Amino acid sequence: MANVPDTGLETMTASAEPMVPALFRIQRVRQETHDTFTVELEPPSRRKTFTFAPGQFNMLYVLGVGEVPISISGNPADSHVLIHTMRAVGTVTKAMRTLKRGDFLGVRGPFGTTWPVAEAVGNDVIIVAGGIGLAPLRPVIYRILAERERYGKIIFLYGTRTPADILYRRELEQWRSRFDLDVQITVDRAQAGWRANVGVVTTLIPKVAFDPANTIAMVCGPEVMMRFTIQALQKRGLGLNDIYVSMERNMKCGIGFCGHCQYGPMFICKDGPVFSYDRIKDLFLIREL
Amino acid sequence: METLEPILRVHPFLEGLAPQHIQLIVGCASNVRFDAGQTIFHEGEEANQFYIVRHGKIALEIFAPNRGSLIVETLGEGDILGWSWLIPPYEWHLDAKAIELTRAIALDGKCLRKKCEEDHDLGYELLKRFAHIIEQRLEATRIQILDMYGERS
Amino acid sequence: MANSSAMGDNKKSQETAEKSHTMFIIEREHIDSLFAALAELKYELIGPTVHDGAIRLEAITSANQLPIGWTDQQDGGTYRLKKRNDKALFGYVVGPHSWKQFLHPPAIRLWHGKRDGRGIHIDEEKAEAPARAFIGVRPCEIHAISIQDKVFINGSFTDRIYQSRRRKIFVVAVNCGQAGGTCFCASMNTGPRASAGFDLALTEVIENNHHYFITEVGSDRGEKVLRAVPHQAAGEEHGKKVDSIAARTASQMGRTLDTNDIKNLLYHNYEHPRWNDVASRCLNCTNCTMVCPTCFCTTVEDITDLTGQYIERVRRWDSCFTVDFSYIHGGSVRSSARARYRQWMVHKLASWIDQFGSSGCVGCGRCITWCPVGIDITKEAKAIRDPEKTPTTSSKVNNNGNA
């Protein structure tokens, strides 16, 4: 069982008052699919920019309702707008979905560890996203594409429930049309007429071509999806320290004090949410941890 | 007509088969082609062949009243389509349709069935390979049933 | 932390238990002078008092408010106060209260805000903390405080609420003259004698009608306060007496916890059948986490008034034993009582070491005393280490964990 040392992944420290939200103004609320929506926020005027690293999250506060941890899903290079995509599944997210342009949202962050963008330089990269797991991975794709020449093959696999649940459709189509990116989409089921893949995302892995000795994999989605994806990647010869996942737990503070996000000895909010699988492989298979 | 032997000999599905078995299979093989949208087989029809997809995409569909045809899986290059030819009552369990122009090698199941009855070694080798495919499909299908991205995921 | 209350490296100090603090004698009748000296320096005194049949920590002003002549009888799920046949001021061990409520408040408002026309304005609560003198801090409690120091004042973030209160504490420690019924500090290397982390440490002695306190000075602050209290120099025999009292107390402890490689023991036994056994007894009542001096989990409540114009966030103590604690969309990660008890115990004895560099348990025994069904953490740890030597308690559960 690993100790809890410095991960070597870059962590940006948050503001001086980490428990007090900064008020961001909503520029736009966009419905993505039937249960998923995106908010675009502008920083308060006192703090004109917001910077983060791919993989980090904010605690988002709906005034008077509550707070939730949500991964940041915008482009790290654009510090004038803060973008979050999430599913409306609970009290806070359902309330957030009803907000409009001009309303305020409390923001605390950015918190957490980051995707291994630096470690992946010089390697092939395989990104596997399941469902809403695409939201925390989109910043990585932006970042890698911005410096495309520094990476080898880039493979992006995305699985979701049905074609109607496909997130960021326009962007996916743009990425797919590039010649230096292998994008494959699959759904769990579809109506006849769907012309792309049907099947769980793990079925795509045996067929993609990459060099397992020089590949970094980044995986995000429901825990069960990550578990099967990791198995499929291992079968292809990837080492456990070359596979990175993003974990999720209940969070109340985001800064390692409330105790809720503990995962074995790890605090998901500060030792994660991004982990190299090697570091948590023993924890991952323990049920109800 | 070009012989399909060089292609079949190196296909992963047939890897490890004795040369005489490969010959038997080659003897039952032919090239086929399906246009985009063309039905390959329907649920309930007699299953007398299986296919090795060389190029293209095939959708496996189930028709449900009030819901229409639902695609439950797609197969592509290198995949094997069809095992119902090997197991009684030798009927297809779902529909298969080519989504795009698809080329495949069709293998005469009726013919192979007879040969398997005569040569049990061949039968065992083929059953082992199909058992593996069925296992993979079953595992993938079970993960699909989980509906991982659904409401409670 | 620049604080003359010397919260040094307690582990190291325990090893050199003979580390010498200057010793003096304070007579019983001068204890009130000590209180007066502290009050003079504007400290609010917090100390043990008898209240509702238990020893509770309350604001006090004179030694008369201490539990004079009282002792406690503790065992699994049992706590009673009993009269002693002397007038000892500190003749008991620990009650349900720990000092954590004064450093890490059970409920506190973090900020509030007001909405008006154009916008919202959020004001952080200014952490205005009173200066307090803790009277009667047991050695195990000193360790508990230093353990919470590592939780709240560490590398990445600092809890200002804790820090502001912590800075202003004057510690009058009391060495234990007897072991409590559920104590096991000797196993945890946290007592029964205070070796560091105090401003003054008292060892109470009553012999041949002579009632006095052997006093050790632990900091410059402590020395300054002592100057205002009548005292005499101590002799070598007094140092020996403190040692022998500590040894006697240590020998009285009825429980032990083998901490040898306990981290790996628990990390490798997440599926041990014993967890099923304890789960069949644990009521998830959360008492243990409330009385534990190191448990620190909290939750936040976001509150608004009926108009929605006023909002505030309150932080409250929380417990990992609640089902909601691990809730994420759709369900709780730890949905079984088994998983929750396991989380608490593995965190306390194992994960804590990786997180904060020491065990989270100080051996105070409170979780055993205040558990309504008397679950004993030392027994559970033993059962996992040596299942054969510790029979299962529930007849319905065999060693495979099957009911």
User: Assembly state here?
Assistant: heterotrimer
Could you tell me the CATH topology label of the largest domain in chain A. Rossmann fold
Strand composition percent of chain C: 15-25%
Indicate the structural class of chain A: alpha/beta
- Total number of strands of chain A: 16
Q: Could you name the CATH homologous superfamily of the largest domain in chain A? A: Nucleotide-binding domain of ferredoxin-NADP reductase (FNR) module
- The radius of gyration computed from the alpha-carbon positions of chain C, rounded to a whole number of angstroms, is 22 Å
- The appropriate CATH architecture of the largest domain in chain A is 3-Layer(aba) Sandwich
Helix segment count of chain C? 14
Distance between the termini of chain A: 14 Å
Q: What level of helicity do the residues of chain C show?
A: 25-40%
* Number of DSSP strand runs of chain C: 16
Quote the distance from N terminus to C terminus of chain C: 52 Å
Q: What best-fitting shape of chain C do the alpha-carbon axes yield?
A: globular
* Uncertain parts of chain A: 1-15
List keywords for this structure.
heterotrimer; A: 289 residues; alpha/beta; Elongation Factor Tu (Ef-tu), domain 3; Rossmann fold; 2 domains; seven-stranded mixed β-sheet; 5 helices; globular; disordered N terminus; C: 403 residues; 14 helices; 30% helix; disordered C terminus
